[in-house]
Amino acid sequence: MLPSAPAILKSTSQALSRAARPLLIPRARALGLAAPELVQTDNLPKYNAAKLAGRPFLPGSDTKGFPATLNPIRVDFPAVFHPKAPADADKLPLEEWGAMVREIVDRELSKTGVLLFRGLPIRTREDYARLFDGTGLAPRDYVGHAGRREQLDTNVYSSNDDPLEFTIDIHTELSFMPAPPQKVMFCCIKSPGEHGGGETPVTDMRGVMRDMDPSLVERVRTRQIRYVRNIADKSRSSWNWQSNMHSEDREEVERFLTGKGFSYRWNADDSLSYWFSTDGLSEHPGSGETYWFNQLTEHNGSCFKVHPEFMNETKHISEFPRHTSYGDGEEFSEEDLAHVREVQWKNSYGFHWRQGDVLVMDNFMVGHGRMGCNPGVKERKIIASITKN
Ligand SMILES: [Fe+2]
User: Which residues form the TauD/TfdA-like domain (predicted)?
Assistant: First the structure.
């Protein structure tokens, strides 16, 4: 009896270079065997739409005009791919699946900006790290990020360590940094289930540009956005500058900030404040299209007014760990914040995570956030990578 095509691949693939793999697939086909393949499906999974308007711990959800629920994903947003022979998916090394994911990313991602790979044999972060290696994408680090996350592996991070019930506002990743990531990848290791919430909404940024008030777009274009960080010392908070900067050395942190052209101040309680202004719009590095590319609402101090750990603090929104204003320091009006949030959520789509799902996004074309988990959910494990290419 002939071994199956995936078995042939498994026995030889460790020694194969990526360039040699395409030769093996025609050989498997010549033997009449099913070659491993990722195929697109238009059979979209059912979605129990998450509540948005009036949702607790969701910044801005109490404003008039906030969308009632999150849209279900539509065909091609994201385009969904799965192994053609799911029962054999385990027989192919994850590096090989990663190479196939890369081929589809190179071919498809520029069309809609987001792809979902489902049914891959990923159960652990080590499995995902192997798949990521197989893509050949160049990882970018998270130094200078302003959220809470943990480095789990060389190129793998926890997606965010905020309290599970909190909803993270829509944003594009590290869009305030020089050389922002080109792609963002998420992988589901532990799903909160179909009734647990915790979706990763994906946002059509072309739709956002279409629906945004042109006068606000113009104000952001001409006045830029100032990002402010007020980050505690590790002796006072798990959310601290040492983990954000990946360093315990003040001089090293100062060199980093100065090198980026940021202003900074060490405060009496050993916390670090720093700030800088940057563009809130960006041209896509490939297509040249202009995108709303910022973290204007997600990093605005107003988010902390509904954050479980900060909502009882009475300080001004500019004193919370993150804040945004116009580049000249003037605050965004409540109307502007409400408008941006409404437009972003109106253009966002959700699906229920399943273990092994891999989501790949073009970081300019597609924004993302995180729905809070529903009461009773104890675990949601989504891991992340960001890339330079
Ligand atoms: Fe993010």
Answer: 89-380
How far does the centroid of ligand 1 lie from the alpha carbon of residue 369, in Å?
A: 6
Query: Could you give the angle at the alpha carbon of 332 between the alpha carbons of 330 and 337, nearest 5°?
Result: 170
Ligand 1 centroid – CA 221 distance (Å): 22
Residue pointed to by tokens 């385990």: 90
The CA-atom distances, in angstroms, between 74 and each of 71, 111, 171 are 8, 14, 20
Measured in angstroms, how far is the CA atom of residue 247 from the centroid of ligand 1? 21
The rounded distance, in Å, linking the Cα atoms of 285 and 367 is 16
Residues 93 and 196 in one domain: yes
pLDDT, one tens digit per residue, over 117-172 is: 999 999 999 999 999 999 999 998 776 555 666 666 667 777 677 899 999 999 99
Residue 298, judged by CB atoms within 10 A of its CB (0-12, 13-18, 19+), counts as buried
Residue pair 229/223 in contact (Cβ under 8 Å)? The answer is no
Q: What is the rounded distance in angstroms from the CA atom of residue 273 to the CA atom of residue 265?
A: 5
Q: Domain limits at 230?
A: 37-387
Q: How many domains does the chain have?
A: 2
Check whether residue 154 and residue 31 sit in a common domain: no
The DSSP code for 119 is: S
Q: CA 191: distance to chain centroid?
A: 16
